[in-house]
Amino acid sequence: MDQSPMFETPLFETHVGSPRNRVDGRLKVTGAAPYAAEFTAPDLAYGYVVSGAIAKGKITNIDTSAAMAVPGVVQVFTHQNRPRTAWRSGAYQDEVAPPGKPFRPLYDEHIVYSGQPVALVVAEDFEIARYAASLVRVTYEAEKHQTDVAKVLGEAYVPPKKRSGITPPPKPKGDSEAAFGASPVKVESEYRIAVEHHNPMEMHATTVVWEGGGRITVHDKIQGAQNSQSYITHVFGLSNDDVRVISPFVGGAFGSGLRPQYQLFLAVMAALELKRSVRVTLTRDQMFTMGYRPDGVQNVALGANPDARLQSIRHDLIAGTSTFEDYQEATVNWSVMLYRCDNATATQKLVKIDTYTPADMRAPGAPTGLFAMESAMDELSYKLGIDPVQLRLRNYSEVDEANGKKLTSKELRAAYQIGAERFGWARRNPVPRSMKEGRELIGWGMATGAWEAQMARTAARAVLTADGRLEVASATADIGTGTYTILTQIGADALGLPMEKVTARIGDSSLPKSPVEGGSWTAASAGTAVRLACDTVRQQLFKYARGMDNSPIANADLAQVAFQGERIALISDPSRFVTIADAMRAGGVDRIEAEETAVPDKLVQARYSSYTHSAVFVEVRVDEELGQVRVTRLVDAVAAGKIINPKTARSQILGGVVFGISMALHEESMPDHNLGRFMNHNLAEYHVPVNADIHDIDVIFVEEQDELASPIGVKGLGEIGIVGTAAAIANAVFHATGKRIRELPITIDKVIGTKETA
Amino acid sequence: MADLDLPLRQGFAPDAGISQALPDDIPITLTINGERRELHVRPWTTLLDLLREDLSLYGTKKGCDHGQCGSCTVLIDGQRMNSCLALAVTKDGCEVTTIEGLAAPDGTLHPMQEAFIEHDAFQCGYCTPGQICSAVGLLKEGHARTPEEIREMMSGNICRCGAYTNIVDAIEDVMAKEGAK
User: Fold this and answer.
1) What digits encode the pLDDT tens for the residues B1-13?
2) Cα–Cα distance between A17 and A703 in angstroms, integer?
């Protein structure tokens, strides 16, 4: 039974908190779930994007005559013939855009990054469009470009405008420099990660259905249908009534679907101009011509006393961004936030390079920053001769060390303990290279993970109809996260219905207002909104039930009844009840509808910080001769408040962990700085884990009560699984080999080429 | 199921004097999900694009178009295969089973589909049809007996959501039940 102070009456939990299969499971396993490129329309035309070949400069000529001559080609759009769109770059700013001037596809002759779309060929079918695209001849005047962050570190600047919604680095505490100098034990090193591209399995696509009269229905690969809708209306000067975005299924995104991608612009432009339905699907190599997790140069310096108490923390980052936007993510904050220390400084600067703007990618900033910090903590533990878990416990903090605020909850201590026990950490021989089996060195490493538990203003509607069915709706998204399922569970419990009688509708811009699905805030936000809307329906329904003639619950108040088994029954005497159908009949209504908005509690936000935490324990096996690393065993103990659905929640963490393993060992967008382009733009050369790379992953949810993080006690799970995983793997590789590898991914060359330091 | 008499893509007569002539359609016969279909396809059309764009069988997914991700896996004469790497004309006379053809006509799911739901062996669902077709093909091959072998032989199907351990659990579950029969 949940008893949050926000809700008037307790909820009897039949479904919430219990493992449930995905309500969209059947659609997904039968191939019936429609993704953006799978909506059809009469007379559908196909668009194929021509990508630019240089990183910087301008187009001097585009010859489209050969393409136009192919039978079946409808039009070739370039910057020379594109229809008029908004001239103000601000019109292109979407809900989550960083400060700057967003990229405007086909705007003019200027090229600002390699792979930039330079033309859209629209034809009667896909193959004709693809073939004709190969006939478009573009000539360029190239200018000198710079895509290498390391070459321009001297130009680093503090972004003048902070990105909305991103916590900037905390104010310095004490004097970290002096304290570092005075510390008897210290570590200081530079860390790098590779650029990564999201690469969801579904490539970005948009189908625009021409409804006539200037109205369009858009199926876009997007994490927030209303973000696409508002982008379209602003850029093309349309009204919300003209544009409806319906995206019920998103084939993964991991952040790539937060901002509208350029295929949305191109498809809408073509549809409006041609007055017909158009679909544009990007190719896999074009998936490398959009946002990415930024590379950066990080420096971490830690000073400690021999008693293992931290005296100084310093974490500096210089990260790349595009020439046109100042992308920012919270990378260095975590190092200050996590551990008790009087002297701490964290700085974050940017350098401009000639690529597309980086983008939020699963837990943006956190796994990058904590890879550096948690590697440094591991190194410090060896210098101090203390167990890595003990070092973290010695410096454990019960407050947000970045701002001194209290925490809504923090069961990280329990996570360390339960995770260590499950893993068998006590059996670890601390000496590097001490564990071996056959030709493989075995290493055990650990790290801490953290992510913000956020809530965002979100509205939801609940409609109960006379047939006893409930629909809950919000314009949020399910990108594989399980949103459909948890909203169904929450709705079912709120009105005492079986899940089969509840339908969740999301992914439609016409539904109650919701921000993009991201940042792990959706379950807390949309979940609370659904609960609030259902509560209003409950109250109405209860009024009808109590007011009916000879009502068995006539004298009860709302707190004395339970909504269970499609009935409203007295808690003290369940034989006295009114069925939902009877209550509605008594009220003379065939539907009860309510819309409510969940808003974060400003008072709570002023006084508290809220985070999810994790303790990650990893076993690696390293074949030193081959330089091969395998993650054979991983335990992730997660403290993330209330778990609505242990089954889909576990999957969220599994997915995050696989992303973390990928970050540690596989993923790397390899630039050729001479060309200013990522060269391995396909899934054979851009490595992500396959089934054989993934072994035993044990997910533990640590019990954590939190009534402040969100009214339903939820903290969110989409990000925390990746955070800390890469650091734990790097630490395990050190334990196995004595080699401290500070640059991700840990590939064969680095395992073989790095010198032992222990 | 798409209407059998539905004409494939609109025809368009090449204008006189234009050099970019398109290749002619070629007649082929495919049995798709048990249904025999006479089709006219261009030689450059892959089996994947034929299924999706001409026959509206969108259950088969395009994830890379290069045979690198496995999202487009279908069963051709019972063998799992990347449909993006097969030109449709080369499969004349073949039997093709897609994800839409796995469940029984009455809607009863294939045991592999059931197991995927039960083990939460997917998240976004995009690679799922390919994973399931691949798993059905794997079982028919009969080579995989241990979890390690399942992992190895399912490695042609990428799941970016990271559902791998649940996919292996689902396949083991079906294998165990089939073995028990």
Assistant:
1) 333 343 444 444 4
2) 12
